Amino acid sequence: MVSEIHLKKQQINYSYRQIGLRSYTTEQRYLPVPLFHQEQSWYCGPASVQMISTYLSGTTYSQDDIANYMGTTPSEGTEVSQMMYGVNYWSGTNFYSCEQISNVSIEYAVKSSVNQNYPVIANVLTQELDNHYGFNSGHYVVITGYKYYWSGTPVYAPSALNVSPKGLAYSSTFTYNDPYFPATKTVRTSIMGYAIRRWTGYFIW
User: Could you report the per-residue pLDDT of 74-93, keeping only the tens digit for each?
Assistant: First the structure.
């Protein structure tokens, strides 16, 4: 596991050095991840895994089977670590790992993962992400794309992955699938980052 995470970060460092040599007005990429509604009020985790596993494997597994595998319960939902194991298992990959947003910025993680065709799972506090929720608690959403607006040449700091890229404009956005509504939505990167920090501080990439 340590070697896999180290390799992932090596890949990030390399890709950011390369990108830093070029100048952009905007950078964007979106993945055609299917949107599924969570079948139970506590199934945001299974529904998020279902979206990603369908996208990556081409097979749609039932939310009940995914929930049983991950130990999802009505009172606790799904633990972040079980989400990581679940998305790897049902997607047939070992790509995904848990990360604290204090260690790696969500802007870095989303760009790196999406550019490798892997969506990102964010664990958020609902009303910090979107005030249309009728409740305020932990929730999982699937980040499927990004649009970064740059003021000048993008500058990355590979040695400080927890620092947002210099020159990334306030209006930069993420696109994400929310299994609760269900809906595909767009939000500023800063709002998504704050919503993650206000709950567990974890995302899965």
Answer: 999 999 999 999 999 999 99
Helix ranges (H only) for the chain are: 2-19, 44-57, 63-70, 80-91, 106-115, 126-129, 189-197
Could you read off the pLDDT of 116-158 as tens digits, one per residue? 999 999 999 999 999 999 999 999 999 999 999 876 655 554 4
- Of all helices (H) and strands (E), which one includes residue 155? strand 138-155
* Interatomic CA distance for residues 130 and 192, integer angstroms: 9
Q: Do residues 63 and 47 lie in contact, with contact meaning Cβ atoms separated by under 8 Å?
A: yes
Q: What does pTM read for this prediction? A: 0.85
Q: Which two tokens stand for residue 94?
A: 């070992």
Distance CA 14, CA 184 (A): 31
Taking a C-beta distance cutoff of 8 angstroms, is the pair 121, 65 a contact?
Answer: no
Q: Tokens 């990959």 appear where?
A: 93
Could you tell me which residues are beta bridge partners of residue 145? 30, 175
Interatomic CA distance for residues 107 and 125, integer angstroms: 18
Q: Which residue has the tokens 């790196």?
A: 112
What lies within 8 Å, CB to CB, of 57 at 6+ separation is 90, 91, 92
Locus of tokens 């870095």:
108
State the chain's maximal CA–CA distance in angstroms.
Answer: 49
